[in-house]
Amino acid sequence: MNTFSPPAPPSYTEATPRERTARLLTDTCAPANLVVVVLLLVGWHSTNGFAGLGWGLFAALFCGVVPMGIVLFGVKRGGLTDKHIRVRKQRVVPMTASLASVVTGIVLLRVLHAPKDIAALVVAMLVGLVSALAVTVWWQISIHNAVGGGTAMILILAFGPIAVPALLVAAAIGWSRLVLKAHTLAQVLAGTALGGVSALVFTLTR
């Protein structure tokens, strides 16, 4: 059983410039934020217009907004240490609840005949979440990098070479998690690899 225990991140006032940059990256590129962004971008691209953007917003409600609400509720109730849930054992319940939200989203998107790319992307997110949950039961994989790596690769698949700079964002997220000692290098790399699995599912189901 994994015994890795990440420390609480330093406050912005007490952090060094390097740590402040890392915290800013970690907070800005939180998994829920990236999920919303990639759904909006892929949604827009799926129809080249506002209709696709609307589908992206609809999917983001179940895949990003509701899961983040679950986490923030847990923090408010005192059951979770922070919005990034740095304690591994605390992740299982909110991840399972988020899983139910994503499944609901998939059902509704299918019933309402959402664009194929949006439906495929949400299925990929479901596979990534299930895989991350399975690993989290015994090991603290980096969810930040699972979503960051998956987001970068999915954007490249959807938009082509113009989206390659997204890989730099994924690398920066990994750097931030290492600086804050939230994960080991192995956990960051494993998270990125898991993101690749999600990208593969997106490719196979779109």
Short note summarizing the structure:
This protein has 206 residues and is mainly α.
What does this structure look like?
- This protein is mainly alpha-helical and 206 residues long.
- The protein has 8 helices and no strands.
- The chain has helices at residues 17-28, 31-47, 50-77, 92-111, 116-136, 143-159, 166-179, 185-205.
- The protein is globular.
- The protein starts with 16 loop residues before the first helix and ends with a helix.
- The model has no long low-confidence stretch (mean pLDDT 95).
- Residues 142-204 form the Phosphatidic acid phosphatase type 2/haloperoxidase domain.
- This is Phosphatase PAP2 family protein.
Annotation keywords:
206 residues, mainly alpha
